[in-house]
Design brief:
3 helices, single chain, 9-stranded antiparallel β-sheet, Putative 3-methyladenine DNA glycosylase, 3-methyladenine DNA Glycosylase, Chain A, 191 residues, mainly beta, EC 3.2.2.-, globular
């Protein structure tokens, strides 16, 4: 399916990201992720995310403090924190809250809209299909190459909150309902 970018689709600005992480996580649902690859815009609707609440959140990378790996997560809001897991899968977080917070929102699944091939049901599959890798570490999401849009047909989705996936090691943080997805969307990573 092709999606035309109309005049009413606005790029999200820095203020959108510079808010409470859980608020941003919920607000990202339904937004359009756009990545221009060799002049072709790959576009997908965000349908599933997870919030990571900073150094006190034992599931967050920032709980280990400021490191070379987490530098972008402690940076200004509205930037990408991209990292490699299992030596083969890239994952992308949207950095939130004021600089130094170490907070972010993991993009877990998207619904393909234009020029996206392959499965997008999971953070590693999403980045592969969207062409996002470590070269986007710290990338400004208010740029033209990689950004998020408010869709013309923006409607408040019905949101489901559950515990995050794969964070059983995070003690009391493992069961907190910080995974959010659009109810009934067939593109979420797991039910």
């Amino acid at each position: 399916m092709q999606l035309a970018v109309g005049p009413l689709m606005q790029k999200l600005n820095r203020d959108f990201y510079n808010r409470d992480t859980e608020t941003v996580a919920r607000a990202l649902l339904g937004k359009i992720l756009v990545h221009h690859v060799q002049g072709v815009p790959r576009m997908a609707r965000i349908v599933e995310v997870e919030a990571y609440l900073g150094p006190t959140d034992l599931a967050a990378h920032s709980s280990k403090g400021l490191t070379r790996r987490t530098r972008a997560m402690f940076g200004p809001p509205g930037h990408a924190y991209v990292y490699l897991i299992y030596g083969m899968h890239h994952c992308m977080n949207v950095v939130t809250e004021p600089e130094g917070s170490g907070t972010g929102v993991l993009l877990r699944a998207v619904e393909p809209l234009a020029n996206v091939e392959g499965s997008t049901r999971g953070p590693g599959l999403l980045t592969r299909a969207m062409g996002i890798d470590l070269s986007h570490y710290g990338h400004d999401l208010c740029s033209d190459e990689l950004h998020l849009l408010e869709p013309e047909d923006a409607q408040a989705p019905r949101i489901v909150a559950t515990p995050r996936v794969g964070v059983g090691y995070a003690k009391e943080w493992a069961d907190k309902p910080l995974r959010f997805y659009i109810a009934g969307n067939p593109h979420i990573s797991r039910k």
